[in-house]
Amino acid sequence: MNFKAILRIIPWIVVLILLVFLWLRRLGNYTSPEKVNTDYTLVLQQIEKLGKLELVKYNYKEVVEVENIAKRYLDLGYFYIPGGQDQKAILIAQGEAVACLDLMKIKKEDISIENDTLTILLPQTEICYYKVNLENSKFYDLRTSRDDKKAAEFVDQVYAKAEKQIKIAALESGILTDAKNMSHDILKPFVENITGMPVLLIYPEQPKSIPIRIEK
């Protein structure tokens, strides 16, 4: 092959290289949205594996008093006919409340990418469970009916009241707010590690309560 033949081939080589470049670029434009969808699915799968993520635990020790007064007949104040036995209990209860984030509630549409930042809309934090630790709780005073069934129902009532007080105390102490703050410390670095990009975690706005004025 002489020099003139080589010069005639060079333009065709340049055109071929240009066509290959344009074809690869166009192929990349078609395939990039599929790659983003795959990333969303991967992130969602990894998050869902965490299930209900326990974030904050509050421990409580409280005194619970419950008294059931039996029905009285011919109650004249100083004289009455009892219809049963009065029941009274003072329980020194120890228990706990745990707040968590149910990551199974996150949907694919809650995940988005904007300006190279992954944004995840999280569900509201919630109390996973609250309970009285029976082994660490004890009755300071317990007077129950001689009827075994009534006595058992009364003891269950005492424990139920103790558990309810634990839940109320946890909510009033801000356990859900603490859980939100903790979720950023735990979940944010986890997601950034699996995606390799900055992560923004946001919560939906809670509706504001509107005071209702009642005209007298």
Automatic annotation (TrEMBL):
Transmembrane segments: 6-24
Keyword field: Membrane, Transmembrane, Transmembrane helix
Source taxon at top rank: Bacteria
Pfam families in the cross-refs: DUF4230
Protein name: DUF4230 domain-containing protein
Record organism: Marivirga arenosa
Higher taxonomy: Bacteria, Pseudomonadati, Bacteroidota, Cytophagia, Cytophagales
